[in-house]
Amino acid sequence: LKSPIGQMYHQFYGENMLRADVCNSVEELGQLLDHDGAIGASERNAARIFNADHCFFVTNGTSTSNKMVWHHTVAPGDVVVVDRNCHKSILHSIIMTGAVPVFLRPTRNNFGIIGPIPRGEFEIDAIKAKIRANPLLAGVDPDTVKPRIMTLTQSTYDGVLYNTEVIKDVLDGYVDNLHFDEAWLPHASFHPFYSNFHAMGRSRERPK
Ligand SMILES: Cc1ncc(COP(=O)(O)O)c(C=O)c1O
Known about the structure:
- This protein has about 210 residues and is α/β, with parallel strands linked by helices.
- The protein has a domain at about 60-195: Aspartate Aminotransferase, domain 2 (3-Layer(aba) Sandwich).
- It contains seven helices and four strands.
- Helix 4 runs parallel beside helix 5 (about 90-95).
- The longest helix is centred in the first third of the chain and has 13 residues, at about 35-50.
- The mean pLDDT is about 95.
């Protein structure tokens, strides 16, 4: 309160907001890192609601969530299969992990609007052809490559959705991890309209 900017901050938010800003040393609230207390119970409930085996809350948004997925799965030099129309956090993930990307290319119309990635782009032979053509993988036999992750924007900004079961069928056993960036699609769990057009639904077959 001894500086002008501090005074402005205090006047804008008020005393109560600043007093309510408690840290995670308040045991009753639980711990994001230990998954206990109210936070742990809430994570387990969210896992149930979203049909997940596990759910871990992240305080830094979808960008950080995406990077956590990648830091957990991808090592330098790994070949990764990436939606060319992905969020920049995925491009950051490629840079940070030192992965070698092959891109799935969506269609684009005369107005510049980005459409879906054609079904054929997901075929294993099409991905192998991209690996063969990639200058960063010169001399590498595509048959010896096992892509580490495939990341797909599931609901694009224009509302394009993919049938995740079809994609699982095509890539199961070939790509280690299927990562659907559903930043725009949490509501899909709550209406039958979305059926298989989101990653984790009820009564889905487990991938290999
Ligand atoms: C598809 C997609 N992924 C990731 C993000 C990043 O989300 P955040 O802003 O929460 O980091 C966005 C944000 O708009 C997004 O649209």
